[in-house]
Design goal:
Rossmann fold, alpha/beta, single chain, about 210 residues, binds NADP nicotinamide-adenine-dinucleotide phosphate
């Protein structure tokens, strides 16, 4: 698959690296420093390159959106037309201090993106775990019990592509239903962040649902 990374920071940088190592063609984009993107691409191996957001999006089968909520206007201006694209969103609608969600309960970042990009296929995924855990999950993917990762969206094909990528990273994808469920998944991340960053055991934390 060709994957465009829109926002190559903690989330996009790590997920893009793992996607490339899993065999996908990855373009890292959107940094204030081109060298950051070049270095990510070198570290990720031969399947990865650096580019502009427009280049990352243009021929992508899916794009991963991993930017601060305040950067949306800028990233969309640079990425160009995302009509028809699978847009996997891990961005949370955080305030400038990254302390509070600025929207929720009756909507979500994912739903607002869908309003803004009505011809794109938005899926909410990857945002419910801290970036610090991704490499550990990838390295443990052969274990029989994988951690869960919830995702939701309204387009079946986009969800199936996302589920494949979730599996490639090493999680067990859990289909939580339509995109509006993101209004519950996004606040759930605040609970995970509390456990990851305010506990004593470090941020390398994932979760697993178990049925009885
Ligand atoms: N980190 C996590 O564990 C985590 C978990 C769940 C959800 N999220 C959400 O995922 C999204 C991405 O988080 P992140 O931690 O990956 O963020 P980040 O590390 O700050 O990455 C943001 C990306 O945007 C780029 N960028 C380009 N121009 C920018 C500008 N003018 N100002 C700020 N950034 C600019 C940054 O590039 P340069 O900095 O290289 O210039 C970087 O590539 C956020 O919405 C966050 O709430 C994060």
């Amino acid at each position: 698959m060709r994957i465009g990374i829109l926002g190559s920071g903690l989330m996009g940088g790590k997920l893009g690296t793992i996607f490339a190592r899993a065999g996908h063609q990855v373009t890292f984009s959107y940094s204030r420093h081109r060298e950051t993107l070049e270095q990510l691409a070198r570290d990720a191996g031969t399947n990865a390159k650096a580019g502009t957001p427009g280049e990352a999006a243009s021929d992508a089968d899916a794009v991963l959106l991993g930017v601060h909520w305040s950067r949306l206007d800028d990233i969309f201006a640079q990425a160009g037309d995302l009509a028809g694209k699978v847009v996997i969103n891990c961005s949370l609608p955080m305030n400038a201090q990254n302390t509070e969600l600025v929207i929720g309960r009756t909507t979500s970042a994912a739903e607002e993106l869908a309003k803004r990009l009505p011809r794109a296929h938005i899926v909410s995924a990857f945002g419910t775990v801290p970036s610090e855990v991704f490499f550990d999950v990838f390295e443990s993917k052969d274990r029989s019990q994988r951690p869960s990762l919830v995702y939701c969206g309204d387009d079946a094909r986009a969800k199936s592509i996302t589920a494949e990528l979730i599996r490639d990273v090493g999680f067990d994808p859990v289909d939580a239903g339509p995109l509006r469920i993101a209004r519950y998944a996004e606040p759930f991340t605040m609970l995970i962040a509390q456990l990851a960053y305010n506990g004593e055991d470090g941020p390398e934390l994932a979760y697993r649902f178990q049925r009885f």
